[in-house]
Amino acid sequence: MSSETSTKLRILDAAQACAVENRLTMARVAARAGLSRQAVYLHFPDRAALLAGLAARLDQPQDPAALIAAPSARAALTAMVVALADGYPGLRPVARLQDNGGQGHRLSACRLIAGRFRDEGALSRHLSLEAATDLLWSLTSLALWEDLVVGRGWDAGRYRSHVTYLAVSALTK
User: Fold this and answer.
1) Which of 4, 44, 50, 170 is most buried per CB count within 10 Å?
2) Domain residue ranges in the chain
């Protein structure tokens, strides 16, 4: 790993910690990373770029290649819900600070999974690809995760199993 990559990862680690504390400023990130503010600005020219970098890092579980490699649409859906259940605790503080909450890939992943259900002949005849995508997008939202896990005290396993069941039931024949 190059020195530049290592420094960038230190900055992102520090930014995530600061976001969790709800105290994300460039100065705090620099101090937490053990760097000067100038060093942080060399990698991230402003707070928006830092948030985008942090969101992109946290959004990695939505890798389309992993969803394509899954043996079935249901397996791809399960993999996505597991990744979200594991990733949302870290993404939540960033989502409060950024409009898209670092979920840029989720809609694409939902479209890919809905398309797999359609291609496997399992998508409900009452749903278009776009409607199925939108339903899956809603069922896997950070807001629903927060309602169930934070608001109602569900653990990650319960979230995974019930959201997967609900999504499969909603999308399939």
Assistant:
1) 50
2) 3-57, 59-171
In our burial notation (b when 16+ CB lie closer than 10 A, e otherwise), range 92-102 reads: bbbbebbeebb
Give pLDDT tens digits for 8-32. Answer: 989 988 988 888 777 889 999 999 9
Quick: pLDDT tens for 91-111: 777 766 655 544 557 888 899
Tell me the backbone φ, ψ of residue 138, rounded to 5 degrees: -70, -40
Average pLDDT for the chain: 86
User: Residue 21 and residue 164: Cα distance in Å, rounded?
Assistant: 31
The pTM for the full model equals 0.70
Sign of the dihedral through C-alpha 152, 153, 158, 164: positive
Instruction: Please provide the CATH number assigned to the domain covering 3-57.
Output: 1.10.10
* Burial of residue 26 (number of CB atoms within 10 Å: 0-12, 13-18, 19+): middle
